[in-house]
Every structure is written in C-alpha cells, then in structure tokens.
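Is pyridoxal-5'-phosphate placement plausible here? Inputs below.
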Amino acid sequence: MDLWAEFSRSAKLSGIGVSEIIRIGAEARKLAETHQDVISLSAGEPDFPTPDNVKLAGINAILTNQTRYTALDGTAELKAAIRRKLKRENGLDYAANEISIGAGAKQVLFNILMATLDPGDEVIVPSPCWTTYLDMIRLAGGTATMVPCSAEAGFRLSPKQLTAALTSRTRWLLLNSPSNPTGAVYGAAHLAALAEVLRTAPGVGVISDEIYEHVLYDSAPFATMAAICPDIRPRVVIVNGVSKAYSMTGWRVGYAAAAPDIIAAMAVVQSQSSSNPCSISQVAAIEALDGPQDIITERRDAFRRRRDRIVAGLNAIPHVHCLLPDGAFYAFADMRTLLARPELKRKDIADDTALCRYFLHECHVASVPGFCFGGPGYLRLSFAASDRMIDDALERMKAGVERLLKY
Ligand SMILES: Cc1ncc(COP(=O)(O)O)c(C=O)c1O
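Reply from A.M.:
I modeled the complex. Tokens:
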C-alpha cells in the first residue's frame, strides 16, 4: 500500500484548519505580488519595530552564547522579571513555581487547555472571540460553549449569561480583556459581578487572556480578576506576553501565572512538545519587562489616534456602523445593514466573507470576516497601520461601497 497516496489527517484535526486570519493574510500577500497597492489590515500585530534596547539585549544574548537549552518552562531570570512585572503593574505576588513561559501566549494557552481538559469538559467563551480559542479547545478534547455577547451589551458577558452557561462539565471561563476582535474591556465592577457567579461554581476556573493589557484606551486602570477577587485568585490563570506591548510578535515569548499544580501540568505538555522557549528571546523579554516603559504610553497614544481615525472613517461609509473599541487595535465594523441592501444581494455579496473578498480583490484592502470570530456580518480591521494606510484603505472602501450601491 502506498501510504502517502492513502494519506488522511488524524481524526483530531477534523474540522480544524489553519486560522482564517493567517489564510487571508497569505491571500493578501499573494495579491500584493502582482498589485503593489494592497493594504493589509488583517494582521494582529503592532506595525512598530521592537524597541532598540530589546533588540540589543537579544544580540548580546547571542554574542555571550546564551544559545543553549534553558530550563523547560523558562529561565529563572525571566521568571523573576515576570514576577516583578506582576507585582509592579498588577499588585500581585507570584512565586517562581507559579510562572510558566512558552513560545508566545498562544503556546501557553494551548498548554493550559491540553493539561486540563478531558473529553466532554466545557469552556465558556464569550463571543465574538479570538478564533484560535475554539480550535484549541477542540484539539485539547474539550467543548467550547460560545455565549454570544451583543454590541448593545458592549460585547461583554453578563453575570446572567454566565449563570445560564454553567453546567456540571464546565471547567473554564475564558475571558479576554481587552478583546480581540471587539476591543471590549472588562472593568473591575464587571469582573467582581462575574466572580460573584463563580463563587457558586467552585470547580470552574478562569483563564484570563491579558495579552492586550497595555493597549487600553479607557481612563480606568486595567483590571484583572486575580487582583480584584483574592478568593477567586487560586483558580485564575493569567495569560500574558511581550508580543503586543513591546512589538515582539516574532520573538515568541508568552507566560502564565497560576497555581503551582497547573504550572507543573503545563510543563509536562511543553516538555513533550517544544521544550523551552527560545533562549535569546527570553533574554530580550527580560529587557522589555525591566527596561524603560515609556514606549508603552507612546505607542498606546498612537493607537488611540488611529482608532479615532478609522472608526470615524468607517462610520462615514454608507450603512457601516462601528463602535469605538476600548482596547486592542481592531475596529470591529458592523456590516449587517450594508449586507441587507438589495444592491449587494443582486451582486451576490451575501455575507461578511463575500464582502471581505470584494474589499480585498476590488479595493485591495485586506480585512478578516467576522464569522471567524463568531460575529457574522462584521469585518475586523486592524489599525496597527500608518495614518496614510488607514486613510487610503477607508477611501477605497468608501468608494467600493458606493460602487456597490450604484445599481
Ligand atoms: C487574544 C489573543 N490572545 C493571544 C494571542 C497570542 O499572542 P502571542 O503572539 O503571544 O502568541 C493573540 C494574538 O493575536 C491574541 O489576539
């Protein structure tokens, strides 16, 4: 038998593909090979470079031969820097055996789910949500319970919705604040109200994805359940990393802070998959966390200006509605009124995927369809792009919509 002619994927992978965001990004790059004017607003990463002090720390790590395997779930030095960060910024004390470091927050999330889910275990995921959560939960053998959170509710899960979603099989509530794709932020009072419900469900933990902690436009300080509700803290796993705050997406360093048992279980998963995160990146991450922090405010101010620009521009496009996100760098634009127009139906543009394709191929603007995030009828546009790119993209999208509405 020719094994490769017979090749089929494992059952584990059924229904799981490469993330739609990566696929659209690749399609945009392919189009850009023949059309130089393609504007990509589909990627989820800051367009700023990694700060120079961090780059130099990485170079120095190479020159000083810090290029070998490190401790499995991160060096003692980086764990210490993460503990300092959690104390300084979040008022939280964690011990070294309560920290796990992986190749990005993504790997850390994967480790948590692999280490804790059994078949049939449920994870409550307020949606719209980052697409990856759902596939990761499935790969880990669990079931995602998506709870739709409307724009009217600020795309946030209410205590009532949480109560209704809990079952005897619920293992985790997965919160992401600020949220990708909606920019929704959970304030302290809201988290306290959710914690009130969790007190009635002692077996349920909270995975708190805080990767956009520093991309926050609200005047209120960033809130994390672990700090707000000390009694709930033992069941909270904080997930964070250096990717978004320090423009270090390619360096791949993320971390978790949690009870020692969870951290030890995560180390087993990492031990049998990737082993330690890159030694050089770990040294650079120490510099990011311990070095000057002005860059965070400077870049957040730039993102705020771009946010205001893109949201105003989107709302100036006929039949498009977009709320001002409180955090992260995505505009989540409601295209449902536009998609309901007979002119679009006649042109076979019936959903967000078709509209996304139209904008990519006819206007050369790449976005991501909302259905990928559990928000059909929406488009996600990243504003981690220059003012010029944002203005050009908006101009082209507006003209594109006007063309669609013509006859
Ligand atoms: C909500 C959310 N969590 C986690 C990640 C992963 O971040 P990292 O680059 O650290 O793996 C992303 C990246 O896009 C994200 O949007």
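Short version: The two ends are 58 Å apart (CA to CA).
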